[in-house]
Specification:
Number of strands: 8
Oligomer: single chain
Number of domains: 2
CATH superfamily of the largest domain: P-loop containing nucleotide triphosphate hydrolases
CATH topology of the largest domain: Rossmann fold
Largest sheet: 6 strands, mixed
CATH architecture of the largest domain: 3-Layer(aba) Sandwich
Strand order of the largest sheet: 3-2-1-4-6-5
Bound molecules: guanosine-5'-triphosphate, magnesium ion
Radius of gyration: 20 Å
Strand content: 5-15%
Structural class: alpha/beta
Shape: elongated
Length: 276
């Protein structure tokens, strides 16, 4: 069973709740490769009626067809949503514009009461490693926050001034106390929202390989040249044999597992969406 809900996440959740009244809108970062599994089920209750904008991020890593499907699906649920990518800067310049459009009525109402409202304040929330700090750096066009490929980099909330009319609060990534659906937990681990020590890499890589066999067989063959007749650990074994991964004359399943997970995370297999 994969479970990961350390104390700092419970604390971060309280910080988010406490700071909510200071912001106009919440940006919910969702990993475009797992638009279902990366949405924190606790968030809806936490955010109450606060205006929100979903950003499907890392979209250049996800399957382009699924990007469109998820965009339409979320829109049909009356969510405000944008596809973005903080590395290629795709749509990053439209975030402020979209936030102001969502808040237009509120800003107008405030101005009618004589409250000047040029500045808006946004809070960025999401699971660990989804790219919150990277997006802020991309918005502010400098390295304001530490950001690297490991869950749990940001440890405390922090305000960053994006421009004279826009303030943004970075928050630590949060998960939820129990993964009822272990497929969700596995997808979170594959995309690296869960720290490495928590899961079994062999098991996780086999899960990924089986998924690829079902949804992306051509990419699986292209990358690893394995037979689709093989099942589960047989696929991992074949990859280890083809790559010559041995440890003391035995097949090194661990090394093959780590290689497969790294291939996925570095997009060496292709553009893949895990939530269908
Ligand atoms: N390709 C791609 N990679 C991204 C994108 N956004 C973030 N990353 C990468 O994802 C990793 C995590 O990014 P962070 O910005 O540290 O994530 P975070 O959400 O702040 O993580 P925590 O602070 O741990 O909660 C880094 O290696 C980034 O380079 C994106 O839009 N596209
Ligand atoms: Mg961060």
């Amino acid at each position: 069973m994969i479970q990961w809900y350390p104390g700092h996440m419970a604390k971060a959740k309280r910080e988010i709740e406490k700071n909510l009244k200071l912001v106009d809108i919440v940006l919910e970062l969702v990993d475009a490769r797992i638009p279902l599994s990366s949405r924190n089920p606790d968030l809806k209750k936490l955010l109450k009626n606060k205006p929100s904008l979903i950003l499907l991020t890392k979209s250049t890593l996800a399957d382009p067809q699924d990007n469109q499907k998820w965009l339409n699906e979320l829109k049909s649920q009356n969510e405000n949503v944008l596809l973005v990518d903080a590395i290629t800067n795709y749509n990053v310049n439209n975030i402020e514009k979209e936030a102001r459009r969502i808040l237009a009525d509120k800003i107008k109402a405030d101005e009618a009461k004589g409250i000047k409202r040029n500045t808006i304040r946004m809070m960025i929330v999401g699971i660990p490693n989804v790219g919150k700090s990277t997006l802020i750096n991309s918005l502010v066009k400098r390295k304001a926050q530490e950001a690297y490929n490991m869950p749990g980099v940001t440890k405390a909330v922090k305000w960053i001034r994006i421009n004279e009319n826009l303030d943004l609060l970075d928050t630590p990534g949060i998960l939820w106390p129990k993964f009822e659906d272990q497929d969700v937990a596995k997808k979170l681990a594959i995309t690296r929202a869960i720290k490495d020590e928590i899961y079994d890499e062999q098991e996780l890589s086999v899960y990924l390989l089986e998924f690829l066999k079902e949804y992306y067989p051509e990419l699986l063959i292209e990358r690893y040249d394995v037979s689709l007749e093989l099942c589960n650990y047989e696929i991992l074994k074949e990859i280890a044999l083809k790559r010559g991964f041995f440890k003391a004359d035995e097949i090194d399943y661990d090394k093959a597992a780590v290689a497969v997970l790294a291939d996925f995370r570095n997009m060496r297999i292709g553009r893949i969406t895990l939530d269908k």
